Amino acid sequence: MGKQYWNPGNMLYPLPAVMVSCQRPGEKPNIITVAWAGTVCSSPAMLSISVRPERHSYGIIKDTGEFVVNLVTGDLAYATDYCGVKSGRDRDKFDDMKLTPLPSKYIQAPGIEESPVCLECRVKEIIPLGSHHMFVAEILGVTVDDRYLDEKNKFHLNQSDLVAYSHGEYFRLGKSLGTFGYSVRKKTEEKGRNKGKRPENKQRENKEKRTQVKKRRS
Ligand SMILES: Cc1cc2nc3c(=O)[nH]c(=O)nc-3n(C[C@H](O)[C@H](O)[C@H](O)COP(=O)(O)O)c2cc1C
Q1: Where are the domains of the chain?
Q2: Which atom of ligand 1 is nearest to the CA of 36?
Q3: What is the three-class DSSP state of 30?
Q4: What is the DSSP letter of 5?
Q5: Which homologous superfamily is 15-172 in?
Q6: Is 60 in the pocket of ligand 1 (CB under 6 A)?
Q7: In angstroms, what is the span from residue 105 Cα to ligand 1's centroid?
Q8: Residue 54: what are its φ and ψ, rounded to 5°?
Q9: At the N or C end, where does the chain have fewer CB atoms within 10 A?
Q10: What percent of the chain has pLDDT over 90?
Q11: Which atom of ligand 1 approaches the CA of 85 most closely?
Q12: Residue owning the nearest CA to atom 11 of ligand 1
């Protein structure tokens, strides 16, 4: 067993694969799939997408200064891949994938109706990095699908079958391992369960349990 040392490369996975919609006034809207995307600030709410200048969408986003990030579900995975291999120079991707432009509230570019969450973004800064230029943008508004709202108006995003992208493949998110902070809560519960018990008593209890298990196995 050992380790191999590789040259620098992108190995930060899993990532979201999102559909970014954009539109030049008077033209049809376009969609580009982006995996080089991330949250960069909580307040103001900001995110970044990195796009190669040769992409058709690059010029649209640069010129209009806006775009919509649309989250991807299992049902949208096929369209996400398609929008990541076909160019808006040659195809109308909304039409090809039977997707519906969703009017935005704060910007003129539409979102994608079929997506559970659409983030309307305005570009704040463009950082040329090399192969990709990073658009750092402020999130002006969020549209959520009310299919995932319960009677108390609580949003259940994790019931929407979100998709992640890892090392060239799309995956549905798997089983939940716990909620935010569960590591601390677990310890507290553990403490509560053993409260008032002296360590040597606990050790004896554990030994007894192990003996019982062994007996049952044999
Ligand atoms: C899963 C996936 C992730 C991608 N991520 C990016 C990305 O982060 N940045 C980028 O410039 N292109 C990315 N691409 C490639 C573009 O989506 C692709 O070149 C697309 O056809 C560009 O569309 P456009 O020419 O209509 O803008 C990705 C493609 C796929 C399939």
Answers
A1: 15-172, 182-217
A2: 8
A3: strand
A4: P
A5: Electron Transport, Fmn-binding Protein; Chain A (2.30.110.10)
A6: no
A7: 26
A8: -75, -10
A9: N
A10: 84
A11: 21
A12: 51
